Structure formats: C-alpha cells, structure tokens
Amino acid sequence: MVSENTLLQIVYVSSLTPGAEIDPTAMLAKARRNNGRDGITGMLFADGKRFLQAMEGPLEKVEATLARIQSDPRHRAMVVLSKRTIAEREFGPWEMAHYHRATDAEFVDRVRQLTQAAAPAVRATIEGFVTLRTEVRS
Ligand SMILES: Cc1cc2nc3c(=O)[nH]c(=O)nc-3n(C[C@H](O)[C@H](O)[C@H](O)COP(=O)(O)O)c2cc1C
C-alpha cells in the first residue's frame, strides 16, 4: 500500500559527462543539505568516472530528487538498477555517505543482491566498482 509514509529505495549507476567537472565537496554539501531537508539517506560511490548511488526516503522526495539528479548535465547514461519500496532503510542513516572506492563489503553485497536480475553489462559495472581496492571515506 502506498501511503505518505512509504519509503522508496533507488540504486543507480551513471557516468561522468566527458569534459564535465564536479567539485565533490560542493556537490556533497548540497546533496546532504537537500537530503537532510527531505529525509533522504544513502550512499554515493564515485571512482572519478562513474557513480553508484543508493537513495532511500519518502517516496515523493526520492522521486523528485532522482528527477533533479537525472537532469544534471554533469553526468549521463543513468541506469536505475533497482527501485523498490522498503519497510526500513537498508543503507544506513547518512544524508549521503561518500566513498571513492567500493570496498564496503556490506554495501557491495546488498547492491549485488538487489541487482541479481540485472543485465550482464550492469553487473559488470558493479563488479568494476567492487574490484577497486582502497577505500577513502569522507
Ligand atoms: C552523481 C550525483 C549525485 C547527486 N546526488 C544528489 C543527492 O543525493 N541529493 C541532491 O539533492 N542532489 C544530488 N545531486 C545534485 C543534483 O543533481 C542537483 O544539482 C541538486 O539536487 C540541485 O539542488 P538545488 O535545486 O537545491 O540547487 C547529485 C548530482 C550528481 C551528479
């Protein structure tokens, strides 16, 4: 049943637009401010070229935020890997945790489970994140 308390979870990948520049500090500050306001939490992985983001929160807020992110010209080729309603948040309480490398095993396992049915190319993208080694959290 969809009510105003319904929580939506979305996981997507995208690629940095060639030639685009993203100031990660400014981008995260804005994302965290907006997400805090909207009750959205999640994680963002970035390896300099690609993004893998999980977002959770009130359905309408997550939809609106995804629409804003999708129309952001700094990245492109967004593929939503998973979109589902959830009973409880599964990716932690952070307004937007940021990883430069995807070595957080719990996160990676969760994304793998969510994307078991995804196309091979999508799974390869995820594995590409996973095989990177050094984690830096900020
Ligand atoms: C990879 C990526 C992830 C982003 N994540 C978020 C996010 O979690 N929350 C958010 O509000 N904006 C996020 N943004 C920024 C949005 O695209 C957009 O610039 C911003 O939401 C506009 O906010 P404003 O209308 O308050 O200026 C992200 C952008 C990129 C490229």
Fraction of helical residues: 25-40%
Write out the strand line-up for the largest beta sheet, numbering strands in chain order: 4-1-3-2-5
Shape: globular
What is the averaged pLDDT score?
83
Largest sheet: 5 strands, mixed
Range of strand content? 25-35%
Uncertain regions spanning at least 5 consecutive residues: 133-138
The distinct ligands, each listed once, are: flavin mononucleotide
State the distance separating the first and last CA atoms: 37 Å
Q: For this structure, what is the CATH class?
A: Alpha Beta
**How many individual domains?**
1
Topology:
Blueprint: E1 7-16, H1 24-38, E2 41-46, E3 50-58, H2 59-70, E4 75-86, E5 97-99, H3 105-114, H4 120-131
Parallel strand pairs: 2-5
Antiparallel strand pairs: 1-3, 1-4, 2-3
Bound molecules: flavin mononucleotide (FMN).
What does this structure look like?
By secondary structure, the protein is of the alpha+beta class. It has one domain (7-131): Alpha-Beta Plaits. 36% of the residues lie in helices and 29% in strands. The chain has four helices and five strands, in the order E-H-E-E-H-E-E-H-H. It has helices spanning 24-38, 59-70, 105-114, 120-131, and strands spanning 7-16, 41-46, 50-58, 75-86, 97-99. Strands 4-1-3-2-5 form a five-stranded mixed beta sheet, with helices on both faces. The protein is globular. The N and C termini lie far apart (37 Å). It binds flavin mononucleotide (FMN). Flavin mononucleotide binds next to helix 1, strand 3 and helix 2.
